[in-house]
Design a protein that fits this description.
Length: about 400
């Protein structure tokens, strides 16, 4: 079977590696530098399992930038291109997905298309109407940045938005590549599968927002956040997972998925979804205000990344805090090893950690780090447990 995976980000590359264990896979991306790294079996993404599998495992994997070379004679095309949220339209920008599908069907009209990119509810059905006769399905991903391949090797569930034998075959391919013997598989209709993705991520965002609001209350009242969280978590219906306070939910998925679900609710009564979106703004307002109450002249931002072990800082919550601090005239300096530029969003990037620690009056970090133990009196964080 010839499989093509379009998009070599953490979703696309982890899917390509999973499938390439047993099938010939061609990864295609417009980023030539990324393709060159994959060809050399070097991961362009900070992900330990991806790094190990690319370097040491036998994979039937090639990487190209040429659409004709990639898509011709393809049996299966997995689409994992970016769908950023467009605030002007209140919807995902699905143009990259639409382009891949049209291009793939031009070169291989009989190919089965599986969309892994997150899309608005109803998008797949609309795409089917534009391409009558084509087999197009949606299969949501539930992967963590920095552990994407691990989550494909040990999937919590596999959901495929096609209840026919074609959908079952794709699910079987994903199970085949997993390390676990038993994997929950759910075959649904396409629009239900799209809904599962958005509602799952919005629930996670709701949980983050809930424990952040608990922490805000404790901070304002002078209470011990950890004691309250531990007591609440003893209820088995609530549990002690995903409860570590932060500067707000962020990263590539949760902010845009919650806003997209809110847009899909435009003609449906709701209260919770809009509250989740609003709560994230309120949390950043509180964090910025709490930092400003310390009257700093120079605030150091230690790492822009959202998660430990990830090199991605797209839409990280600390950037919202930074914008609020900048608006109040505070000087910001940034320590982020992933940046090679001298400035980021108008703020100076400091490559030397010791200089960064010396110059900052307050050091803001979403997650604790042993790098800052010697300047603990300068550190501002809401992190309790030292984990995501």
């Amino acid at each position: 079977m010839k499989i093509v995976v379009a998009g070599a980000g953490y979703v696309g590359l982890s899917n390509a590696v999973i499938l390439a264990q047993h099938h010939h896979v061609t990864a295609i991306d417009t980023d030539a530098a990324k393709i060159e790294l994959i060809t050399r079996r070097v991961s362009p993404i900070d992900d330990p399992e991806l790094t190990e599998y690319l370097a040491n495992r036998p994979l039937h994997l090639e990487a190209v930038t040429d659409p004709e070379l990639a898509y011709t004679a393809a049996d299966l095309v997995v689409v994992a291109t970016p769908t950023d949220y467009d605030p002007q339209t209140s919807y995902f920008d699905t143009s990259s997905v639409e382009l891949v599908v049209a291009t793939a069907l031009t070169y291989s009209p009989g190919a089965n298309i599986v969309i892994k990119s997150t899309v608005p509810v109803g998008f797949t059905e609309e795409l089917r109407q534009r391409h009558p006769g084509a087999t197009i399905m949606f299969s949501p991903e539930f992967l963590r940045e920095g552990r994407a391949l691990y989550d494909n090797l040990h999937p919590s569930r596999i959901v495929v938005g096609d209840r026919s034998a074609v959908g079952r075959r794709f699910a079987d391919l994903m199970v085949e590549g997993a390390d676990d013997d038993v994997v929950p598989v759910l075959l649904t209709d396409s629009t239900e599968a799209e809904s599962i993705k958005l509602f799952a991520n919005t629930y996670l965002a709701l949980r983050v927002a809930y424990f952040n609001e608990l922490d805000t209350y404790a901070a304002v009242r002078g209470l011990d956040t950890a004691q309250i969280i531990e007591g609440v978590g003893l209820d088995p219906r609530i549990g002690s997972h995903y409860n570590n306070p932060s500067f707000g939910y962020g990263g590539y998925c949760l902010p845009k998925d919650t806003k997209q679900l809110l847009a899909n609710y435009s003609e449906v009564p709701q209260n919770l979804v809009v509250a989740v979106v609003d709560a994230n703004r309120t949390r950043k307002d509180f964090i910025a205000g709490d930092i400003l109450s310390r009257n700093p002249e120079v605030v150091g931002i230690y790492r822009l990344t959202m998660k430990t072990g990830s090199d991605n800082f797209r839409s990280s919550s600390v950037q919202g805090v930074m914008r609020r601090l900048s608006a109040e005239g505070v000087t910001l300096i940034i320590y982020e090893p992933g940046l090679t530029e001298e400035t980021f969003s108008g703020s100076e990037v400091i490559a030397d950690l010791e200089e960064f620690k010396r110059r900052a009056d307050v050091i803001v970090t979403n997650r604790q780090s042993s790098d800052l133990d010697d300047v603990a009196d300068k550190v501002y964080t809401r992190d309790i447990y030292g984990r995501d």
